[in-house]
């Protein structure tokens, strides 16, 4: 009994220091994050966006949309992408061997015709079955391929992409009409920028018409309301804080813009992980550090992507299980960066934070409940 008492005391002290450090980090994120958001709000106005358009200062963007079984939402999502306010872009929908009517819905909604398309197979992917072009929208391309997973579909989209920037989005997401314009300007302002992530907002409860979000409303469910708070904290404090410290390791798979050549340089998306979005960002960091390059990976608060969040516990559990498995896979794949001076604050701050407070956080909590 005495040994158990000492163990409980030691664990209580550990938990005290654990949460003290965690709260200190949250305070740091808040300071840097809110500072960055305030500065961004001052600098970027409607007039500056209009000036960019009038000066024709932009880089063309390829929007990559991997889709599997999305027959109910794919048409509305693609319409929202085609309606973006941007001078030059293309939408590449990659149908990853869907088993429902996703491909048929796309053919009917956008007047698709099969074409012979020549492309450079820079990244290996599952076989391409057919390529379709839209008669109604010249900048829409649909690729039908054998199923290989989301990362494989994104790699196929990269093979077909023609433009220097690419934007990876989820098939069930909707973008703010000016999202591309606001995010892509950072690549123009600084040639060191390799990738830019935007803000994700829950779509639950919103009023949508023609693929455009007309009004945001609070959803009815408690679970969905809690996720609205969670997403606001994660992006406006967490992502903004890490970006301000030049240590951003996550750009959401629902919306992120990358330099295409940089993604191809590091080998595209890995297909052996469920955390392919975070893994690509960490690998961009790692390769640039190892090459001694001056680079930046940024978060910008205003480019908005709307997505449906889980409304029931079973779906939420599956989502968080996938996120946590992806985090562990990334940490294991890049464990050589941990506490390695070669990687600076990434190795000594960012990766240790994700290991001790994100990956191991549930272990600390469960152990505490078990001891109680």
What would you say about this model in short?
Helix content is 49%, strand content 20%. It has 372 residues and is of the alpha/beta class. The protein has a 10-stranded mixed beta sheet, with helices on both faces. The protein has a two-stranded antiparallel sheet with strand order 9-10.
Strand and helix map with partners:
Elements lengths: L1 H42 L2 H9 L6 E7 L6 H9 L6 E8 L5 H9 L1 E3 L13 E7 L5 E6 L4 H11 L4 E5 L3 E3 L3 H11 L3 E10 L4 E3 L2 E4 L6 H23 L10 E5 H6 L10 H15 L5 E12 L5 H21 L10 H16 L1 H11 L1
Parallel strand pairs: 1-2, 1-6, 2-5, 8-12
Antiparallel strand pairs: 3-4, 4-5, 6-11, 7-12, 8-11, 9-10
Helix pairs in contact: 1-7, 9-10, 10-11
Describe this structure in words.
With 372 residues, the protein is of the alpha/beta class. The protein has one domain (57-236, 247-333): Spore Coat Polysaccharide Biosynthesis Protein SpsA, Chain A. 49% of the residues lie in helices and 20% in strands. It is built from 12 helices and 12 strands. The strands form 2 sheets. The chain has a 10-stranded mixed beta sheet with strand order 3-4-5-2-1-6-11-8-12-7, with helices on both faces. Strands 9-10 form a two-stranded antiparallel ribbon. Helix 1 (2-43) crosses helix 7, helix 9 runs parallel beside helix 10 (313-333) and helix 10 packs antiparallel against helix 11 (344-359). The protein is globular and about 75 Å long. The two termini are 15 Å apart. The model has no long low-confidence stretch (mean pLDDT 88).
């Amino acid at each position: 009994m005495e040994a158990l008492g000492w163990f409980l005391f030691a664990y209580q002290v550990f938990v005290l220091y654990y949460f003290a450090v965690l709260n200190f980090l949250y305070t740091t994120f808040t300071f840097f994050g809110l500072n960055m958001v305030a500065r961004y709000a001052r600098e970027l106005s409607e007039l500056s966006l209009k000036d960019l358009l009038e000066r024709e200062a932009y880089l063309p963007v390829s929007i990559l949309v991997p889709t599997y079984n999305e027959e109910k939402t794919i048409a509305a999502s693609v319409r929202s992408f085609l309606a973006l306010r941007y001078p030059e872009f293309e939408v590449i929908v990659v149908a990853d061997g869907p088993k429902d009517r996703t491909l048929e819905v796309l053919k009917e909604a956008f007047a698709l015709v099969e074409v012979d398309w020549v492309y450079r197979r820079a990244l290996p992917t599952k076989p391409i079955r057919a390529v379709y072009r839209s008669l109604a929208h010249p900048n829409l391309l649909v690729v039908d391929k054998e199923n290989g997973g989301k990362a494989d579909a994104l790699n196929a989209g990269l093979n077909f992409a023609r433009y220097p920037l690419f934007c990876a989005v989820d098939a069930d997401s909707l973008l703010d009409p000016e999202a591309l314009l606001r995010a892509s300007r950072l690549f123009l302002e600084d040639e060191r920028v390799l990738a830019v992530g935007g803000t994700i907002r829950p779509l639950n409860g919103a009023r949508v018409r023609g693929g455009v979000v007309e009004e945001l409303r609070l959803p009815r469910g408690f679970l969905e309301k809690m996720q609205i708070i969670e997403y606001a904290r994660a992006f406006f404090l967490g992502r903004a804080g890490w970006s301000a410290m030049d240590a951003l390791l996550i750009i959401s798979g629902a919306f992120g813009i990358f330099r295409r050549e940089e993604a191809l340089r590091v080998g595209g998306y890995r297909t052996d992980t469920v955390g392919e979005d975070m893994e690509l960002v960490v690998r961009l960091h790692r390769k640039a550090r190892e090459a001694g390059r001056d680079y930046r990976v940024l978060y910008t608060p205003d480019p908005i992507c709307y997505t449906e969040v889980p409304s029931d516990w079973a779906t939420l559990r599956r989502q968080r299980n996938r996120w946590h498995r992806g985090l562990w896979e990334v940490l294991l794949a890049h464990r050589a960066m941990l506490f390695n001076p070669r990687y600076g604050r990434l190795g000594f701050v960012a990766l240790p934070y994700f290991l001790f407070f994100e990956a191991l956080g549930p272990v600390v909590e469960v152990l505490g409940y078990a001891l109680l």
